[in-house]
Design a protein that fits this description.
The structure holds two protein chains of two kinds. Chain A is built from 20 helices and 22 strands. Chain A is α+β, with helices and mostly antiparallel strands. Chain A has an eight-stranded mixed beta sheet with strand order 1-7-6-5-2-3-4-8, sandwiched between helices. Chain A has a seven-stranded mixed beta sheet with strand order 9-15-14-13-10-11-12, sandwiched between helices. Chain B has a domain of 86 residues: Response regulator (Rossmann fold), CATH 3.40.50. Chain B is built from five helices and five strands. Chain B has a five-stranded parallel beta sheet, with helices on both faces. Chain B is globular and about 35 Å long. The chains are: A alpha+beta, B alpha/beta. The interface between A and B is medium-sized, with 25 and 26 residues.
Chain lengths: 628, 126
Amino acid sequence: MTNPLDKQRTTVIYGEEATTNKILQFIDNTDKGWDNCIDKEGPSVSIKAKIIRKAVEHAKNEKGLRIRSITEITRDNIEYCKEYIKIVTELRHLDGIKGNFGVSEKEYLSTSKLQETSLLSEIIYSNVKSIVDQHQFLFETLWTKAIPAEIKIREIEQGLEPVFVDVIQNSKRAKELYLHLLEIATKEIMIIFPTLQAFIRQEKIGVMQAIKDAVKYRNTKARLLMPQKYFADDAMWYVIPDNERLLQSLQQRKPSQSTTQQPNMQGKSLNYKENNNIISIDDLLYQNIEIRNIEPTSETKDTTILIVDKKLSLVMELRDDLKNTFEEAIGLSTYSNSSPGVLSYISIFESLWKISELYEQIKSHDKMQKEFINATSHELRTPTQVILGCSGILKEHPERIEEIVDLIYNNATRLQRLINNILDVTKIESRLLILHKRQFDLGEIISSIVEEYKKQIKQDGRDLELIYDQQYAVNSNNQKFVYADKERIIQVISNLLENAIKFTKIGFISITYDFKKYDDTNYDGNSDSDIIGNVVVKIKDTGIGINKETFPKLFTKFTSDSFQGTGLGLYISKNIIEAHGGNIGVQKNKENDEGVTFYFSLPLSKDHEFDAKQNNNYRENQGLKQER
Amino acid sequence: MIQNKKRVLVVDDEKDITLVCTMILKDAGFEVDVFTDPILALTSFKPNFYDLAILDIKMPHMDGFELYKKIKELDNKVKVCFLTASEMYYETFRSKEYSSIDSELFIYKPIGNRDLMQKVNKIITS
């Protein structure tokens, strides 16, 4: 090896051993010290490379050399920087340092990228005076621009990063920044997409993947606002198949005769037909990515707005929505951490978010009203038609009253029932359903309801058996009394029984009830409550069962498998039972595929147990007449 | 003008509607057959027998429009009208496949007996 001082030269050195030796030599050669400028990996590499670290410490502490260093201090490397600052004489921070070089009064070293796992495999060495001088100048320039590491560290630790507003002219840089911001998001990502095309372009550069990763691996939440007018479009589904709402919108959609391809996409990524509607829902994504729709407004139609962790904003101007690639479509972007700026974007986002919620509500309200009109109009028109027709005939032929009166009576009753149902729903929805509770014999009311329906079945001449037997009704303590709104419970039982009769052509319907007391262990766990048990009433039929589509929404309004009726009965029943603190539900019968069992429970409270026992004894002789 | 009695077929899944229609139509001098099951109505349909078929629209198993199509296949001379109580069902379907059906052929429940007969006579003689 030639002595570098003898001859000026520039050379590349390969291999870990050779590069390490060169660095050690560089440290050894200087009499004054050196300056270096290292990227954000630099501090951790310097700390972990023990031989070099030792040499540096020796140079500083034993030889009293001056070592100045510039690096980029970030949230990720801050701990290394705090240690590194002790090794060097002075450390400063500068944003965006890439590449690494060191320069002493006589030598220069550089390498492109530092990696924590391996030592340097390749460095450039020079002792050419002009190169050394050049890098000394360069370093001094950077040094004056850099800020003391202590300040930066404090800022990061206190969350007070200096305010900046960067205007980014290069859309490629905007793209990198966009993805980078999604990568560093740890709390929340908010995005407003101006158009569907913008969304598709952004999806292509990996935005959605980055969001999914943020949600999956860093437990970030994401809220996205999309232009509503495209929502119903076939193209939407492939976009984020993991979203339930999209899924719903797809399921509602008929198999497409889709001619609605987006004009400028040339069908490239819109191969939605092949993928069809089979979509898996990832639970995590489903919970943490929420998408809503907005009508594009003048505020939103020209920009994509990204807000990360409520601290950083990136606003990208949409220059030309007809372009295919992100880079071509984006104009200027501004990137900022200024809190007034970010807060105003947050407030835009939040108000649009709120609006979209209201919009959804209005839509569902609208749908509900239509359903209401649809369901009730049939139930109003049909019996009214019969009554009108019958009374018309009676006017002409009063003598036919015997033949006609039942028809009028039955249909008037049907109208009455509709009116009551509508009133009940109104009461439920305005929270005016008031219960008039009292003690009554459950067994007795079931008995009388069953008798009533037995008559009706007989009249209709149907091959249907109603089974209700005090013996068959399992009853542990021979208890029959409940404390509830008698009329309402009658309404529920009648409704369930009527449904069972309606959907069971032949076979049987059985009613049972069972009083259960919670055992002591259960009771202990819930000592605040005075609920000591419950009574469960079951109505089992051998009918046609319940439609798959109807099943999940069975207890909601306007849901019916029947062509007659309003679909309000079960909704009302559910609300009545829940107002009592009980539960209502349905199960498919196990033994065979036929039929279902509806059940409801009512809680039994401690306060009324004693009354009930007394009542049981009293009733032996007197029958039921207690009112409370 | 006076030939044999006109024959009318009424299909409605509401039994009471078929009863009251029967009374009104018989009172007006028609012969009436009624069905509450549209499938049974179709399987028992006699071509070139009826002058008019009055169909409900929203029925289980087969709706009035489908029944209309099938009946027309069996007998293209029979006049058909719809007596309906369902708002939306009618609108959704009519706006799509059945927009060709003359709106005169839709009769809305409830309708008074005299108005009903007026419409029925008009359709039969049209």
